[in-house]
Amino acid sequence: xxxxxxxxxxxxxxxxxxxxxxxxxxxxxxxxxxxxxxxxxxxxxxxxxxxxxxxxxxxxxxxxxxxxxxxxxxxxxxxxxxxxxxxxxxxxxxxxxxxxxxxxxxxxxxxxxxxxxxxxxxxxxxxxxxxxxxxxxxxxxxxxxxxxxxxxxxxxxxxxxxxxxxxxxxxxxxxxxxxxxxxxxxxxxxxxxxxxxxxxxxxxxxxxxxxxxxxxxxxxxxxxxxxxxxxxxxxxxxxxxxxxxxxxxxxxxxxxxxxxxxxxxxxxxxxxxxxxxxxxxxxxxxxxxxxxxxxxxxxxxxxxxxxxxxxxxxxxxxxxxxxxxxxxxxxxxx
Length: 334
Description:
Layout (H helix, E strand, L loop, with lengths): L4 E2 L1 H9 L1 H9 L2 E3 L4 H18 L4 H10 L5 H18 L3 E16 L6 E17 L1 E10 L10 H5 L4 H12 L4 E10 L33 H14 L1 H4 E6 L3 H24 L10 E2 L2 E2 L3 H4 L11 E3 L21 E2 L1
Parallel strand pairs: 1-4, 5-6
Antiparallel strand pairs: 2-10, 3-4, 3-11, 4-5, 6-7, 8-9
Helix pairs in contact: 1-2, 1-10, 3-4, 3-5, 4-5, 5-8, 7-10
């Protein structure tokens, strides 16, 4: 049953805030207006899926997905430039795509006993499984412009204990793929933003009546911004794209299994007690309030159908599709 499935997203949600988990996965109430960072990342995943699965003209396929999306004009422009830069950066990197968007479901194992949970199964969707001499799982992430993605940064250090990587490597092996580790692709959103006209009362002029640097007489057009972003990506590709190999040993796999097992046990305890504690540390993340902040502070009701909708199932990222995106053994650029 879908209600007995534990995903990494659900596990992370409970760890961040049990009350948020209750609203999302028990009440099945989801915000009608999706936060821009989340919708941007979803668009990026769809575009890269098209890029990976296209037999030829991969960039054309990815750009088509972006252009046909319902994202706003600015996000479509930014994503188009990011994916174009991604194509330039990795087009000559030869991997053999084995499976894309590979969905899995497997028992949740108690690492202390080796027994399967009678309540939970673990499910998810691996971005890709690729091969170059060895098999690897592939994960790609679109991250905030404020995150340092350079090798050795905190972002990469934290991946040493990231539960998603451990779980997905385990899942790939359960599906019959002997994987060496994870190829981790990171795409950073741009820091530069479109210029806006400087307010008249803040403008400062030179003797020739022109404005000082960093001041603008009018808003920058979308095409002007796209060109500036295109040039910045071309000049600083390392600031936008990083790829690394992440490995797991048996000790870390066991630690991750305990993390997941006890996460599920805590969720079950909340279900039994009917108690879903709030976590104030999770109320504000990424410079925005939690989607359920108005409910927790009494400004809105979770049953407000203007703010929230009812999801058809708890894990909308999962589908009932068979994993048809399998490939033959021909090596292609990836």
